[in-house]
Amino acid sequence: MNIKHYDELKNIIKIYLPEDVSVDDIKPTSHLTQELNINSANLVDIVLDVEDHFDITIEDDEIEKMETVKSAIEIIEAKVL
Q: What CATH number is given to the structural domain containing 49?
């Protein structure tokens, strides 16, 4: 996992965290909806921001696989490398 990609993704995710979740809670193993409490609407916003930031397209089946921060990074890295 590329630390740069992790930090960039973390900066995108933190915008959508609910008030009761700290940016310090974002870890590679964090589940986006269950642990970080990101709702489905915000998950779509995160995907759109990721696509813009990394200049990639994430397919619907890949969105379904984006359960954790690490799985999101793996999808990003497969497209940008």
A: 1.10.1200.10
H-run or E-run covering 13: helix 3-15
Report the number of distinct structural domains present in the chain: 1
Residue span of the structural domain in which 67 resides: 3-80
Cα-to-chain-centroid distance, residue 15: 11
Spatial distance between the Cα atoms of 2 and 16, rounded to a whole number of angstroms: 22
pLDDT in tens, the chain (81 residues): 899 999 999 999 999 999 999 999 999 999 999 999 999 999 999 999 999 999 999 999 999 999 999 999 999 999 997
